[in-house]
Design a protein that fits this description.
The protein is of the alpha/beta class. About 45% of the residues lie in helices and about 20% in strands. A hairpin with a 2-residue loop joins β10 and β11.
């Protein structure tokens, strides 16, 4: 958005600087290979799928997923985004409709957190529980070789999981999912709690992934980089948008600022202006959102260096509260900014 161009550039520059610093050790050790199973022409089709708990989450929705499609799911917290992922994964039955799966579908579900890891289990045993060998288009790789490709050297492979950092646990969990050679990846807030190394591994892998990706995320950069289709949850309705996140935001901005069709009857022109309190609120949001984002980044950094459950749980709770606050304030900021832009046009 125009009003935050300078601040966005500053954050992007900081990201680029950090990313370049992390590139050297990663590129020296990491080799991305294609671990997906072959995906047939028949994929996944949603037929009139709907769900509710105490109240309706989303109305009946139909959609045929295309081969190698990248779908991002947007919406407010509690709108049903993760519920839809659980339905697609087969972990939850819809109250209405059904899902049709192709015979070649093999699904991997990367959930929030580290799932139920046995803290006493060794890294190599955790991976070998899924498969001792993985067949890929580049050849067959042992679990030990795959651990090395995901930056777990020989010493780390025989380390108990409880001694890993938060970021290393997320990387190990990601490897376990990929060891099953899925051709459909479901990702629920995949960039949460990831260190730079693991995030880079995930993004590089998705670049070459031959299959369907369906992700729930609040990470706008990640959505823009990955997705070519968006499911937008709004007022219990799912709308499909063809294009990435930036395309969607541009379209939304243009739709919001588009003047209404004039009627034959002349009307007094109504000028939309921010009130004094709204201007102050907008200025406050401009300052507070980057501060909250910095606090979020600090927590992510702390998560990379703690391994005990109590600390991880406390930091994760703080992170969730910050994310909710950022989302609420960002929504309010966007509303005020659109109103300000309308007053200038």
């Amino acid at each position: 958005m125009q009003a935050r161009t300078t601040k966005n550039k500053g954050r992007l520059q900081r990201y680029e600087d950090l990313s370049q610093q992390a590139d050297l050790p990663v590129q020296q050790n990491l080799e991305i290979i294609d671990m997906a199973s072959r995906l047939g022409n028949k994929t996944i089709t949603l037929h009139h799928v709907s769900h509710s708990f105490e109240q309706l989450l989303f109305e009946p929705f139909d959609y045929p997923f295309k081969r190698n499609e990248r779908v991002g799911i947007l919406g407010m917290n509690g709108s049903g985004k993760s519920t839809l992922l659980n339905i697609i994964a087969g972990e939850l039955q819809p109250i209405q409709g059904y899902i049709e799966y192709g015979e070649t579908i093999r699904m991997g579900y990367f959930k929030q957190g580290h799932e139920d890891m046995n803290p006493q289990q060794k890294v190599i045993d955790y991976i070998q529980d899924v498969a001792r060998y993985l067949k890929t288009r580049q050849g067959e790789f042992s679990a030990k070789q795959m651990c090395e490709k995901f930056l777990f050297d020989t010493n780390m492979q025989y380390t108990p999981i409880e001694r890993l950092s938060g970021g290393e646990k997320r990387r190990l969990y990601l490897l376990k999912i990929l060891m099953s050679a899925p051709n459909v990846l479901l990702l629920d807030e995949p960039t949460n709690d990831l260190d730079i190394t693991t995030l880079q591994i995930l993004e590089d892998y998705l670049d070459s992934f031959q299959g369907i990706v369906i992700t729930v995320s609040h990470d706008r950069y990640f959505l823009d980089r990955l997705c070519d289709t968006l499911f937008v949850f709004n007022n219990h309705h799912i709308t499909v948008h063809n294009g990435g996140y930036s395309d969607y935001m541009l379209m939304t901005s243009q739709t919001t600022s588009k003047p209404k069709k004039e009627s034959n009857k002349p009307k007094k022109e109504r000028i939309i202006k921010l009130t004094y309190h709204e201007k102050k609120e907008l200025e406050m949001l401009e300052e507070s959102i980057p501060t909250l984002e910095k606090q979020l980044a600090d927590i992510d950094e702390q998560l990379n260096h703690v391994s005990d459950f109590a600390s991880i749980q406390e930091l994760s709770n703080q992170r969730e509260q910050l994310e909710n606050e950022i989302e609420t304030k960002s929504t309010r900021w966007l509303t005020l900014l659109e109103k300000q832009e309308q007053s200038r046009s």
